[in-house]
Amino acid sequence: MKPNRRPANPCFSSGPCAKRPGWSPAVLEGALSGRSHRSAAGLARLVEVVERSRAILGIPTDWRVGIVAGSDTGAIEIAMWSLLGARGVDMLAWENFGEGWVTDVEQLKLPDVRVLHAPYGRLPDLSEVDPARDVVFTWNGTTSGVRVPNGDWIAADRKGLAICDATSAVFGMRLPWDKLDVATWSWQKSLGGEAGHGMLALSPRAVERLESYTPPWPLPKLFRLTSKGKLIEGVFRGETINTPSMLCVEDALDSLRWAQSVGGLDGLVARSEESLATIAAWVKTSSWARFLAEDPATVSSTSPQLEIVDPWFAGMAWEGRFRTARAMARLLEEEGAAYDIASHRASPPGLRIWTGATVEPADVALLLPWLDWAWDEARHAAKAA
Questions:
Q1: What DSSP designation does 231 have?
Q2: What's the rounded Cα separation, in Å, for the pair 223 and 180?
Q3: 68: three-class secondary structure by DSSP
Q4: 0.85 exceeded by pTM
Q5: Is 114 helix (H, G, I), strand (E, B) or coil?
């Protein structure tokens, strides 16, 4: 039967993600629209974004944190194009975005690259990562629902840099900053912010690499973090390389203030973990769905992906499975129960539910009966066709 209650907020997209509870455009009324980001007031807002992010995430005081262009993609590409090539690099790829960073490295034509692959639903063998080499990886594989469970595999005495695309992990998971050298993220994921702006955090070891190594390829202006062999400190003091949107800055500040109001990182992580626990309890009793992540320790708490395991569905050709999963997503959207939860086009056909901290756990609980309803509807329609 069709459920009679819907989530109060049906936004379960994995990016851009749901705005924080209670958000309205009114929070932007104080934005410095029409003001220069280089004015004293504009610069103060940018610095506030950086310092609030640092405080909530527990980023060490000796790390540099800056706002860059191009969302998380821009941030991770700045890091790779500026830092890689000084030594060999291990690339970890188990989902679409990790594969994308492999493509970047191929275009840089680095002489010593190893790619450690794993299929969707699994992690590569992390014990194979060489601490003498740089390593580039996503902490949370948004398109597979698989996350790194911890940083134990990263050597404390590593010689290489650990470069982490953390965009769907920060503000929803705890990161071991002592095991990382670079972390990147965007406002549009766990903060529910607007797109186009990225964040770049650099450890002292990463800064040392920047100041001692010059890559052999030209760097566009948007990627340049050094001048005459020295770090451009202004980039990490709110002096952005290009012009940011002050409307987006105001929105990010609103999200950061909200994050602090719900208990900071502890509160944010608890909200995501509660939503995951609710889905996990439902999966245990489901006859047709399970997590795509094979190891329970690696199931994402912000972007869990559901695999459809019904024997009839599994026996269909890929095109039929794709159409059925997409039909479920359309039904949920038409009913106003869930928006944009079809799995990524590159991943196995299924459903992906954003459960970052801006999503109310109560809405996740209300969504689950709708998933059962949509499965029954789409299955019967496909069999009748």
A1: E
A2: 21
A3: strand
A4: yes
A5: strand
- Measured CA to CA, the distance from residue 168 to residue 187 in angstroms comes to 10
> What is the residue type of 205?
R
In terms of Cβ atoms closer than 10 Å to its own Cβ (0-12, 13-18, 19+), residue 95 is buried
Rg (CA), the chain: 21
- Mean pLDDT for the chain overall: 97
Classify the phi-psi angles of 227: left when phi > 0, otherwise alpha if psi is within -120 to 50, otherwise beta.
beta
First to last CA, the chain: 21
Could you tell me the two tokens for 195?
A: 């797109």
Say whether pLDDT at 385 is over 90. no
pLDDT at 296: 97
* Local structure of 75: helix, strand or coil: helix
Q: How far is CA 163 from CA 102, 138, 139, 172, 349, in A?
A: 13, 9, 10, 19, 30
| CB contact set of 193 (below 8 Å; sequence gap of 6+) | 16, 186, 187, 248, 251, 252, 255
DSSP 191: T
CA atoms within 13 A on the CB side of 346: 14
What whole-number distance in Å separates Cα of residue 210 and Cα of residue 83? 6
Q: Which tokens sit at 127?
A: 């014990």
What does the block give as tokens for 270? Answer: 């608890």
In terms of Cα–Cα distance, which of 74, 305, 53, 303 is closest to 191? 53
Where does the pLDDT of residue 176 fall: very low under 50, low under 70, confident under 90, or very high at 90 and above?
Answer: very high
Percent of the chain with pLDDT over 70: 100
- Two tokens at 177? 């900053």
> Does 133 have pLDDT greater than 80?
yes
Which residues have CB under 8 Å from 109's CB, separation 6+?
Answer: none
As given in the structure block, the two tokens for residue 48 are 């506030």
The predicted-structure confidence for 214-234, as pLDDT tens digits, reads as follows 999 999 999 999 999 999 999
Per-residue DSSP letter, 265: H
